[in-house]
């Protein structure tokens, strides 16, 4: 698509935003407050504002400031965004602190002004991307971080101020309506609490889902170095890279990339997958003989006290099985067999699993760490069974499920257990596996509809149940079980979660306010963890959307 000139971009935005402009009443007067944000992938966006009695004057004030800043800083903005204020509330500093105390950290979704003239006013995106609000978890308090605020004022406005609670007696919060231009076209932005500031999407159609899969999987591909290791993640407010590493997440992220490749057929993604798997197998897997002399493969988590996690073996089997299936390349079959034999070492006689072993003596470190390991291990064995038809893996999973059912594991609403019960049902279409899957999802449907965080594993869980129900309908089996399930609620929850996960995507209109947008653009983030963009945050979103795409495509 052709890139429009700066003047053309701004004119399109002005004409679009003007249609929604009504002004806002402040201290008994009708005024118009306009913000123009502009940025590029390499650095944090700048924001200029204008306040006047008419929209035209307010726009021109903001525009003059923007043009001056672009010229003085020799900028070449790619992105432009404009916002108009639609609602204002006034607080004393004490009341403002009480107000934000009841809001989850980073879920404050309003702009802030520190004066009634709006000379010191900041969009919600500026507030959150620059860490204006800090939570003291020990005392359950939230405060304004004046150090960060003063630093940003100097960056954006060029003013050296020393604001603090004693200097600022009042705080004005405000809501906005906005438009964003990416250089080719403009988008209307959402203005509701959770959707605020990112492009408005009325219907999440198949083309948009594919676009998201392409963009986020290519982001992951760009994070794989020549040695096959990922850049693990970022805290984007101040571009702080996460330095530690987790080989389990390396494996599961690679699995999601292969799911994406199945849809996109991207050459660059394929090359990144190849490098990532080579690193996993060559650097992560070690072979140890068990008590019976059986050679087992284990994925080693390299820390000060090296450990072997059941979940790491499972993630590796998932990734290598998916690679074998998608690329019809069987070079990892021996590795898969040894890693699965390693999973067998974790399984107890009653079907349950030990979770963490010591390396290299294979003694038990933790009998239980996290519920997700169980379902992930069983699911990985089913994926391998679908390739090699080794009955040993199927027997292990059936044994595990007897334990899961007996101990009511559906109470945990684990997405891996839903995925596994679906795979198991494909080979053993028994009532008990369908019932388990439906119980696993039924208990979380209300949560899916009400939860404000993006919580990406929910969509994975929902998709596994959707696929299982589709299978029963297609084969005309277990109709009485399906008839007693709330299919409409499942469908509503699925569509809702798929749309809601867009609130965790680093669209350019979101990324532009962080320190180095190109490091996070089209990744997925966790808002309440300081907008963290980590490979596993992306993988779960990506897997959910891949499964959603395949279903609406009819695959």
UniProtKB/TrEMBL annotation:
* InterPro entries from the UniProt entry: 6-hairpin_glycosidase_sf
GO terms in the biological process aspect are: carbohydrate metabolic process
In terms of superkingdom, the source organism counts as Bacteria
Protein known as: Thioredoxin
Q: Which organism is it from?
A: Alkalicella caledoniensis
């Amino acid at each position: 698509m052709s890139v429009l000139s700066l003047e053309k971009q701004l004119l399109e935005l002005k004409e679009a935003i003007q249609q929604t402009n009504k002004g806002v009443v402040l201290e008994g007067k009708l005024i118009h407050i306009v913000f123009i944000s502009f940025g590029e992938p390499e650095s944090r966006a700048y924001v200029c504002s204008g306040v006047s009695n008419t929209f035209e004057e307010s726009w021109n004030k903001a525009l003059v400031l923007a043009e001056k800043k672009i010229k003085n800083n020799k900028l070449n903005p790619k992105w432009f965004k404009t916002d108009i204020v639609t609602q204002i509330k006034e607080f004393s500093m004490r009341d403002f602190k009480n107000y934000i105390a009841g809001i989850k950290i980073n879920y404050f979704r309003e702009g802030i002004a520190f004066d009634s003239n709006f000379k010191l006013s900041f969009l919600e995106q500026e507030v959150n991307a620059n860490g204006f609000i800090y939570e003291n978890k020990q005392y359950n308090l939230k405060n304004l971080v004046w150090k960060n605020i003063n630093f940003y004022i100097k960056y954006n406005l060029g003013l050296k101020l020393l604001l603090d609670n004693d200097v600022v007696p009042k705080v004005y919060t405000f809501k906005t309506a906005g438009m964003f231009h990416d250089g080719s076209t403009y988008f209307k932005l959402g203005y509701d609490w959770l959707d605020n500031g990112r492009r408005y999407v009325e219907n999440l159609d198949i083309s948009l889902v594919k676009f998201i899969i392409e963009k986020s999987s290519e982001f992951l591909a760009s994070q794989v170095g020549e040695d096959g290791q990922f850049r693990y993640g970022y805290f984007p407010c101040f571009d702080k890279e996460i330095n530690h590493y987790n080989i389990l997440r390396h494996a599961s992220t690679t699995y999601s990339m292969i799911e994406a490749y199945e849809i996109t057929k991207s050459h660059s993604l394929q090359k990144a997958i190849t490098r990532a798997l080579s690193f996993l197998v060559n650097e992560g897997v070690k072979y140890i003989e068990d008590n019976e002399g059986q050679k087992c493969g284990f994925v080693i988590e390299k820390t000060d006290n090296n450990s072997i996690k059941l979940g790491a073996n499972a993630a590796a089997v998932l990734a290598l099985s998916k690679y074998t299936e998608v690329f019809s390349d069987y070079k990892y079959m021996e590795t898969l067999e040894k890693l699965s034999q390693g999973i067998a070492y974790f399984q107890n006689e009653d079907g349950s699993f030990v979770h963490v072993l010591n390396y290299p003596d294979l003694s038990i470190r933790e009998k239980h760490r996290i519920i997700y390991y169980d379902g992930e291990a069983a699911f990985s064995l089913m994926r391998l069974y679908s390739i090699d038809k080794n009955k040993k893996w199927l027997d292990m999973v059936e044994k595990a499920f007897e334990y899961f059912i007996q101990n009511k594991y559906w109470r945990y609403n684990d997405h891996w257990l839903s995925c596994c019960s679906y795979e198991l049902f494909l080979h053993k279409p028994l009532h008990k596996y369908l019932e388990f899957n439906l119980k696993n999802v039924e208990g979380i449907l209300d949560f899916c509809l009400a939860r404000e965080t993006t919580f990406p594993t929910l969509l994975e869980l929902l998709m596994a149940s959707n696929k299982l129900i589709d299978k029963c309908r297609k084969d005309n089996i277990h109709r009485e079980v399906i008839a007693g399930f709330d299919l409409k609620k499942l469908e509503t929850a699925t569509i809702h979660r798929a749309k809601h996960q867009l609130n965790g995507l680093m669209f350019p209109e979101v990324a532009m306010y962080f320190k180095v947008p190109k490091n996070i653009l089209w990744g997925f983030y966790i808002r309440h963890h300081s907008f963290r963009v980590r490979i596993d945050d992306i993988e779960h979103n990506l897997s959910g959307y891949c499964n959603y795409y395949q279903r609406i495509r009819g695959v």
